[in-house]
């Protein structure tokens, strides 16, 4: 009986910690999403101005941020699947 109680407490603690991680990931997802929007606006402005080299750098930054965003979403989904 005590073992079941300890297991329940441990699971609740794990779930609370996972919830905190999800909140942190949500904030980071929002920040990276905003950064992508900003970088893509800058890339578009540079493309329109004919500054192809600068635009390509922004395009590269956008690709890196999108990869990071994909990873963040994967981590969040894994936490949700594990502790939902």
Give start-end ranges of low-pLDDT stretches.
none
Q: How much of the sequence is in beta strands?
A: under 5%
Give the helix level as a range of percent. Answer: over 70%
Shape: rod-shaped
Q: What does the radius of gyration come to?
A: 20 Å
Structural class of the secondary elements?
Answer: mainly alpha
Mean pLDDT: 93
How many domain units?
1
Q: H/E element string?
A: HH
**How can the largest sheet be summarized?**
none
- C-alpha termini separation: 25 Å
Q: Helix count, per DSSP?
A: 2
Number of strand elements: 0
Main traits of this protein?
mainly alpha; 84 residues; rod-shaped; 2 helices; single chain
Structure description:
- The chain is an all-alpha fold.
- Helix content is 95%, strand content 0%.
- It has one domain (2-83).
- Helix 1 (2-49) packs antiparallel against helix 2 (52-83).
- The chain is rod-shaped, with a radius of gyration of 20 Å.
- The model has no long low-confidence stretch (mean pLDDT 93).
Please specify the SSE layout and strand pairing.
Blueprint: H1 2-49, H2 52-83
Helix pairs in contact: 1-2
What would a concise description of this structure say?
By secondary structure, the chain is mostly helical. The chain has 2 helices and no strands. Keywords: Coiled coil.
